[in-house]
Amino acid sequence: MRAFKLKVNLKLLPKPETPFMKVNSQQIIFEGPVGNIEAILDLPENTSQEAFISVNCHPHSLHGGTMTNKVVHTVSRAIAGVGIPSLRFNFRGVGKSAGNYDEGLGEREDLKAAIEWLANEYPNRKIILSGFSFGSFVSAFAAKDVSPSMLLSIAPPVKRFDFDGFVRPSCEWNIIMGDQDELVDFQAVLDWVNHFELTPHLINMQGASHFFHGRLVELREYVEELVCRHVERS
Question: Which parts of the chain are beta strand (E)?
Answer without folding.
Answer: 23-32, 35-44, 52-57, 86-89, 126-132, 150-154, 172-177, 201-204
